Amino acid sequence: MRITVDRKRDRIYPDSKRVITRFFDHKEIKAKSIIQKILDMSEIEAESSLNMVLREFAKRHRNITKIFHMNFTKAIHYVNELAGSHEKISHTKRLLIGSFFTMEYFH
Q1: pTM to 2 decimals?
Q2: Residues 43 and 71 sit within 8 Å (Cβ to Cβ)
Q3: Does residue 1 form part of some domain?
Q4: For position 90, what pLDDT does the model report?
Q5: Angle at alpha carbon of residue 23, lines to 22 and 25, rounded to 5°
Q6: Which domain holds residue 94?
């Protein structure tokens, strides 16, 4: 069965002023897998990845690093299980982990 699609020229784009972030709670196995991959990264890889994420999120959020840090602290129990202590982890990797526990939605 064929369906004919008639595309229009008009486009609707999201308003970046109406984007909200919230903590994204992964299932335990997924959360630990994400964190372990970040812990296994070199500092250069982590820095490069974080810079890409910051470039994307900074367009829509004023203080995204503060949000990433807050979300890192919400996932800190997984980090402590895997790394022994979150205090050993660099600031870059903390923010990167926080970014993986951050989701956006438009309201």
Answers
A1: 0.80
A2: no
A3: no
A4: 93
A5: 140
A6: 27-106
Identity of the residue numbered 74: K
So what's the pLDDT on residue 65? Answer: 94
In Å, the largest CA–CA distance within the chain is 59
Tell me which long-range contacts 22-30 makes (C-beta under 8 A, separation of at least 24).
22/102, 22/103, 22/105, 23/70, 23/71, 23/74, 23/101, 23/102, 23/103, 24/71, 24/100, 24/101, 24/102, 24/103, 25/74, 25/101, 26/100, 26/101, 28/78
Residue 44 lies in a domain: yes
Q: Is 84 left (phi over 0), alpha (psi -120 to 50) or beta?
A: left
Total number of domains constituting the chain: 1
Is residue 35 within 8 Å of 95, Cβ to Cβ? Answer: no
Q: pLDDT 10s per residue in the chain (107 long)?
A: 788 888 888 887 767 777 888 888 888 899 999 999 999 999 999 999 999 999 988 888 888 999 999 999 999 999 998 888 888 899 999 999 999 999 988 76
